[in-house]
Amino acid sequence: MALSLGGKTAIVTGAGSGINLAFARLLLERGCNVLIADLALRPEADDVVACHSDKSHPAARAIFQQTDVREWSQLERMFGTAIEEFGGVDVVCPGAGVYEPPFSSFWHPPGIDPSLDSATSSRYAILDINLTHPIRTTQLAMAYFLARTPSSPSNSSAARGPKHIIHISSIAAQVTPFLAPLYNTTKHGLSGFVRSLAPLDRELGIRVTAVAPGVIDTPLWRDNPEKLRLVNESKGDEWVSAEFVAKTMVRLLEEEEVEVEGPEADATDLLSDIRKDDRKTIRVEGGLILEVSKDRVRKVEQFGDRGPKGKGNTVGNARLAEEEILQKLGAGEWGRST
Question: Do the Cβ atoms of 293 and 240 come closer than 8 Å?
Fold first, then answer.
């Protein structure tokens, strides 16, 4: 069920920057109110909230709620605030995530600098942020969507109207870079989670989908030297814009069918532009995952998928970073507290 975004309300975690901020902007442009949930706002996100904060303005509003997505009570509070401010929720995007940061990385074990994971806490922050938070937020969204309200004579999908939960997976849900074992784990898990909820669309009118972006030009990469050094544009690495990913996310909400790269593209040079006859139209439905790379979108098949290829999916300096890790492992001191 496609959704007309005008007059609707969305909750977007991680929209203080990057893909989620680009998504929030597009929602606001379409008349959809947005609750931005994040630890903090970058200046560009602060400007977005400031421009859409006036309750007397007829256009869509944006509000910011400081949120640590690892804390379930704060996730619950998002829904309470959205209902209080906007009267309901129609779209939920648990988009906040991190990419194998030094503070919570397989290669920096708990209790050993620079990890901030405690050796006695029995948890990894990256798993809480990238996997547990989207799962718990989905539960909360479903509970809200399915709740019988005084204004609804029934609990049918027609009475509630279409509802959408859109996740941000990654090409790392298919490829397995040595540099990011925990990140890979979270994205494999998230894609499986999205697919498992596919029947909700047909049975209850709750559509759960995802995008799987490649290498995206966001602060997550640009502001982290240990990540930025992996990208080598002289070797052909190219960035995917956050705006292009966000547009694909909006298409998953607004359209019943989308045009994607077709199977014929497998036999073409994947570094060249896709010809018009290499495209196909597919139905948007629950469980759908769309890979988003440089100027192209394709459906990620559950079985027999060819995997991500082409522009926007490569990091040319990955081997150099892998060699550094292997050197540390070979020194015999890895994983030991000093």
Answer: yes
pLDDT in tens, 112-165: 999 999 999 999 999 999 999 999 999 999 999 999 544 444 444 444 578 999
In this structure, of 13-27, 47-61, 147-161, 193-207, the range with the lowest mean pLDDT score is 147-161
Question: Is 164 in contact with 104 (CB distance < 8 Å)?
Answer: no
3-state helix, strand, coil in the chain (%, to 5): 40, 15, 45
Q: Structure pTM?
A: 0.92
Please, how many CA atoms are within 13 Å of residue 108, restricted to the half-sphere of its CB?
Answer: 16
Give yes or no for a contact between 85 and 60, defined as CB atoms under 8 angstroms apart.
no
**Is residue 99 within 8 Å of residue 179, measured between CB atoms?**
no
> How far is it, in rounded angstroms, from Cα 288 to Cα 298?
11
Distance CA 263, CA 121 (A): 47
Would you tell me how many other CB atoms lie within 10 Å of the CB of residue 164? 27
Distance of CA 129 to the CA centre of its chain: 11
Contact (Cβ atoms closer than 8 angstroms) between residue 275 and residue 314:
no
Token pair for 110: 């708990």
* AA letter at 184: N
- φ/ψ of residue 193, rounded to 5: -60, -45
Taking all residues of the chain, what is their mean pLDDT, rounded to a whole number? 90
Confidence at residue 172, expressed as pLDDT on a 0 to 100 scale: 95
pLDDT, one tens digit per residue, over 35-64 is 999 999 999 999 999 999 887 666 899 999
CB 38 within 8 A of CB 12: no
For residues 62 and 49, the answer to whether their CB atoms sit within 8 Å is: yes
| Of the candidates 22, 24, 21, 20, the residue with the CA atom closest to the CA atom of residue 10 | 24
In contact, 239 and 311? CB cutoff 8 Å: no
Sign of CA dihedral 51, 52, 58, 59: positive
Q: Please give the residue that has the higher pLDDT: either 228 or 274.
A: 228
The more confidently predicted of residues 269 and 174 is 174
Please give the span between the terminal C-alpha atoms of the chain, in angstroms, as a whole number. Answer: 57
Cis omega before residue 110 (within 30°)? no
